[in-house]
Amino acid sequence: MAVERIGSILKHLSPGSSLSQITSKNADDVVITLAIRTPLTKARKGGLKDTSLEYMCFALLEELRNRSRIDPKLIEDVCLGNVSDGKAAYKLRAAMLAAGIPNTASCSSLNRFCSSGLKAVADIAHAISAGSIEVGVAMGAEQMTVGGDALEKPFDEKVTSRSQEASDCMQPMGWTSENVSRDFNITREEMDKFAAESFQRAEKAQNAGLFDDEIVPIRTTFQAPDGKWSEITVTKDDGIRPGTTAESLAKIRVAFPQWGPTTTGGNASQVTDGAAAVLLMKRSTAIKLGQPILAKYVGSTTAGLAPRIMGIGPTVAIPKLLAQHNVSLADIDVVEINEAFASMGVYCRDTLGLDWAKMNPRGGAIALGHPLGATGARQIVTGLSECRRTGKKILLTSMCIGTGMGMAGLFVNEQ
C-alpha cells in the first residue's frame, strides 16, 4: 500500500532541521511580504465568469504593487500556476506589463495540476534561495468558466496498454473520489458531515469578516442572464451556501452514479474562478526595502502514489515534508488541506490523525471553491491570515494532485 511504502521510507530519512531551526530568523531566509487573492466565484455563474485570466492576473498584480509599494523595477520574475489554459504564459506576460512591471522582468507559467499555485511559490522561493533572483512574485489563477481538467480525447493505447496505472491516469477525478470512498470504507454520511462542516465554517468566517484582509476587490464586467452587461465590483466569495447541514446535503443526488454512490455536487469541491499572489524575497532584502515580513517559507515537497486513489496524496506528502524538517503534526498550528472531495478529506484527516479544529478552520474548497491553478497559493493566503488572527505560528498546506501525487508546504507566520 502506498502509505505503508512511504512510511517505511520516512523511517530512514535523516532529519534536516527542527522546530527551533525552522522558526529561527536568518538573513538568507526566503520570506513572504504580501499574500493576497481575488474573491473565489462560481464558474459560469459567479461574479468573475466574464473576467479573463489575463485581467485577473493584471488586477492582482496591480494591487500587489499598490499594497506593497515596492518599486516594480525590483521584481525580477513572476511565475503563474495554471492548469487549463495553454496560453497562460502569453497572458501572464501581458498582465504583468499592463500592471507596470517593466519588461526587464521575466515570467513563466507551470502546471502541476491542483498544486500549481504552491509549485509556483516553491519555484520562486528556490530561485531566490539559489541567488538567481532577489525578488519574485508567485501566482496561481484559473478561469474555470472557460476551462477545466477534463481530457479531450483518450491517451495513445500504445502507452496505456503497457500499464494499468498508465491507463488509470485517464480516470476522471470524480471516479477517483469513488475509488477512495470504496477502497477505504468512507460512507456518504461521513462525507456529507465533513462537507457540511466546511460550509458552516466558511459561512461563519465570511459573516465575521475574516476573509476581508485576504481578498482584493475586483472591478470587472458582468453579463446578466438577460444579456445586459454592467460593471460590478466583486468583493466576496460567492460559493458559500448559508445554512448548509449534513441533512440538506444528504438530499443531493449522486454526481457519478456510473462510478459509485457517495460523491455529490454538495460534498465535492466547486468549479470556480479566482487567483492568488504571493510576493517573496530574502529576509535581508525585505529589511533593506522596509517590506513587512508576513511569514517564512520553510520548504515543500511532492510524493507519488497510485493514480486511481490520487485523493489521498496529502497522506504521503505531509509525512515526507515533516520528516525532512524534523517536526511533527503536534508542532503544526493550522493545516490547510485542499478539499478536492469529501472522501479524500475524511481519509486524510483520519489517517494522519489531524486535529479537525486545526484543519481548514475557515472551510475549504467544498465551500469556497477550487480554481485549479490558484488553490495552492490561495491556501497560503488563507492560512497565513488565520495565523495572524489567532497568533498561531506554524502553517502546513497540502493537496492531492491528479494522476496520483501529493504536495505539501511549510511556513512560519511572523505577524
From TrEMBL:
Pathway this chain belongs to: Lipid metabolism; fatty acid metabolism
GO cellular component, one term: peroxisome
Domain (Thiolase C-terminal): residue spans on this chain: 293-411
GO molecular function: acetyl-CoA C-acyltransferase activity
Claim: Transferase is one of the keywords in the record: yes
Cofactor(s) recorded in Swiss-Prot or TrEMBL: K(+)
Record-level GO BP terms: fatty acid beta-oxidation; phenylacetate catabolic process
Family stated for the protein in its record: Belongs to the thiolase-like superfamily. Thiolase family.
Protein name: 3-ketoacyl-CoA thiolase
